[in-house]
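Here is my example:
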Amino acid sequence: MKLYLSNGYANMPDIIRTPTPFILVIGGRGTGKTYTSIKFCLENNIKFIYLRRTAAQMELVSKDEFSPIIKVASDIGIALTSETISKYVSGVYHIDEDGKPTGSPVAVNMALSVVANMRSYDSSDVKLLIFDECIPEKHERQITHEKEALLNCIESISRNRELQGGEPLKVLCLANANNLEAPVLQALNCVRTLDQMRKKGVNQKVDKSLGLSIFLLNDSPISAEKRETALYKLTMGTGDFTDMALNNAFSRDNYTDIGNRPLNEYMPIAAIGSICVYRHKSNWTWYVSETKSGKPVEFENTITDRVRFKKYVWQSWLDYFDRKLVFENVTAKVAYKAIMLENLK
């Protein structure tokens, strides 16, 4: 599949048509992910939910002057306006002769942080969920139990449509390459796949058995043009911002503590889920691997045992901040940090 249209922007029409219910698109700033997705929906009369992470973000995009939906509609000659449906939901409507909203909404704005309050919303006519900016930027705080919130959100919107013979809800996740540890990537169970794609230089992967497609908008023509603009001339080579915004590269922080270590130099301490924590026999550094060797203390992956595991390996967490802990791969790092950070936010 061609990832870019003739104008250089992301080929979202073909990406959305990919025959999997879950689609993840990661690309640099301004590559057309959101704009072209909304344009495709409006031009094809596809009712969609526009999901953002926080209530503050939802409230902002619910205002006409900040709505990406209304901006796109205006560009293609469609007059729309926003109106509040409830405290946590707003709709985007066509306008009647008096300039007032009319008919049913063509799109609905929601926030992941408050979706638990909207379980009674009838979403049976929604075909697509667009989760925009689904990977938070470094300065943004995670939502408590964000992974579970997303899965519950999808379940609430999907209802039992598949059990009733309908097509599954299509979920389109759009993001910049900010953080490989993002809850949405854990929810989609794709951290390992993303890391492998990065290492091998693969920019698209369609897995029909899992129902997940991943597209990495590397080598974007738009990003190439943006290199010559004032901001990127100023920040070129200065760190993660340019790498993310132009090169579609995840933060370097994701990889500085990744490396293989010989297990025979380590003592197995504790195992939970897919990971095992080891301590070096002589220099007392730590290693977290997806390989379990020896006889570590084993914990079940339950709420109670995760608390017990954290207490048991707490010194490893303290030493992590002193750069005395190395992970076998990104997947092991994500799994370890998810447990250690649970209920600490």
In short: The mean pLDDT is 89. The longest strand covers residues 101-111. Residues 154 and 171 are 8 Å apart (CA to CA).
